[in-house]
Design brief:
five-stranded mixed beta sheet; alpha/beta; Nucleotidyltransferase, domain 5; about 230 residues; globular
Length: about 230
């Protein structure tokens, strides 16, 4: 079954929108940290126009539900919800850390990842992910927020043993390298230099799998996931 999906990723400093149609993916990206609200709808309109389709031709709309920057999470959720309600489409909600792990896999081919986003207040949003048989990253522990040195892993020894090649990925590693390396000193972790963010084209990969599994969301039930109660606007 060939799906037509729109993906919206606004949880990090970068904003990206991607469209899957006839097995081909198109993506638009902005690296303007505070410009998400200005880019999301124009990007959506441009991709649909280039593909010569309308929202009603989509099978579903995928969005990153969080965690991430408060404003970005809220923008992505509300835009996806509004578009889905106006076109009577289902939603697919995906963790931004799962998408970041999927982006890591596409760039590095490493099948085990510790994705981390900067949560500010000297904390990181972090998760533990591994590749499944469908080439999709799945979580091994619930996403969490914590100071880097206090990151918890309830089944740590068993998870460590699953791979000799863990990939640290994302601005949580870039912005807190010393603390993250100290926390994971017993893990065999590599991390690339530079800033890397979740991308909408990788959201499409996870969303397509969720669609096939019937994991669809009524737009009225779309909710952002901040992970922590106290949010930092940005």
């Amino acid at each position: 079954m060939s799906l037509t999906l729109l993906a919206i990723e606004t949880c990090s400093e970068a904003c990206s929108i991607a469209l899957l149609i006839d097995g081909k993916v198109s993506q638009l990206v902005s690296n303007e940290p505070r410009g998400h609200a200005d880019h999301v709808l124009p990007f959506v309109e441009k991709l649909l126009r280039q593909a010569d389709i309308s929202l009603k031709n989509l099978d579903a709309i995928a969005f990153t539900r969080g965690p991430g920057a408060f404003t970005g999470v809220r923008i992505g959720t509300s835009v996806a919800q509004g578009l889905a309600l106006s076109s009577n489409l289902p939603l697919i909600a995906v963790s931004s850390l799962a998408v970041l792990a999927q982006t890591s896999y596409r760039h590095t081919d490493l099948t085990h990842c510790i994705p981390a986003l900067d949560a500010r207040m000297s904390e990181v949003y972090v998760g533990f992910y591994q590749l499944d048989n469908n080439d999709c990253m799945v979580e091994l522990e619930n996403d969490q927020v914590a100071p880097a040195l206090d990151i918890a892993c309830s089944n740590e020894q068993n998870i460590i043993a699953q791979s000799d090649h863990w990939q640290g990925y994302g601005p949580g590693w870039t912005n807190y390298p010393d603390q993250m390396q100290q926390r994971f000193s017993n893990w065999k972790v590599a991390y690339p230099e530079g800033l890397f963010f979740p991308e909408a084209l990788d959201l499409l990969t996870l969303a397509e799998a969720q669609y096939q599994d019937g994991k669809l969301l009524d737009p009225a039930e779309a909710m952002p996931v901040y992970v922590r109660d106290k949010v930092v606007r940005g």
